[in-house]
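Let's practice the habit of predicting before peeking. Look at the sequence and jot down your guess about where helices and strands might fall. Then scroll down.
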Amino acid sequence: MRIIIALAIMAGLNICALHAQGNYNKLVGSKGNGYFNHLDIAVTAGTTGIGVEVASPIGPNVQVRTGFDYMPHINVNMDFDIQVVKESEASVTQSKSQERFNELQRVLQSLMGVDIKDRVTMKGEPRFNNFKLLFDFFPFKNKKWHFTAGFYAGPSRIGMAENSKESMTTLMAVNFYNNIYKNVYYGNPVVTIRDNTIYLPPLIEDRILDTGTMSMHIGDFKDTGKQYRMIPNEHSMVTIKVKANRFKPYLGFGYGNSIVPKSKYSYSFDCGLMFWGGKPKVVTHDGVDLVHDVNNLNGKVKNCVNMIKAFSAYPVINLRISRRLL
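Done guessing? Here is the structure:
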C-alpha cells in the first residue's frame, strides 16, 4: 500500500513539474530568445581577484550577471628607517641620525632588556572584495562581443598595511623613549608612583634633549614643506589604510558566447574600468593622507603610493569560465 501511495505522489509531482515547465516556457519564450530561459554559473579570475557569478538572459540581446569577487591576501613589505632628530632640526644627515640611534639602542637595551632595530617593516596587502551586478549588451548577430555596464560594491577599505610582529619590540621601545623625552621637554616627572614623583638628573635631561626623538621620515607635507615624521600610536603600532568609494560604477566590453553557447561550457573575457571616485586615499594611523597631503615619499612606500595615484579608475581584466546549469 505504501509503495502505491509513493508512486502516486511521484506521478503527481511529475505532472505538476511538466505543467509548470510549460507555463514557464510560455512566459520566457523560445529557447535562446526569451527571458531567464537558462542559468549559467561561472568562476572568474583577473585584476578584481577570483570570484563566482551567475548569469541569465533578460532579453534576446541582454544578460544580467551577479556575483562576488575576492582578492587574495598578497603581502608587500615596506621598510622605514628610524631616525633620531632634535626639535630644532628641520632635517638630519643619515650618519648623525645613526650615531644617535646607536647610543639610544645601548641605553634602551640596558633599561628594557631588548635589542631594538633601526628599521621597521610594514606588511601591506590588498583587501579588495566586492559584490557586482553587471548587464551585458550583445549588439551583433553572432552574440560574441558585448558591452557591459553595472557596478561593484564593497567595503571602503581596499587595502591596508601594518607593522610586522618582528617590529613590535622596536616600536614599543620608540614609544617608551619618546614618552621620556616628552616628560623631560615639558618639565614633568618621568615616573609617578602614587604620590611619589621621579625626575631625571639635570645632566641626563640635557643629554636627552640634545639627542632628540625617534621617528620615521615618510615624506614632506605639501602645504608647509615640513617633514612628515610618523611615530607609533598608543598601541605601539603603525598602520596605513587605503580607501575608495563603496559604490563603484563599471563600464567595459568583452568577448564570449554566454548567451548562445554551443556546449555547456563557455569561455569569455571582460575588459573595462571601475570608477572608484578619483584617486584613493592612503591614510596613516595619525590621519595623514599620503596621496593628497604628502610628497617626496621615501622607500618602497613611494612606489606603492605612486601606483595608486596613477589610477583614478581601476582597470578590470577578467577571464570567465561558465557552465550552463539550466
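How did you do? The longest strand covers residues 313-324.
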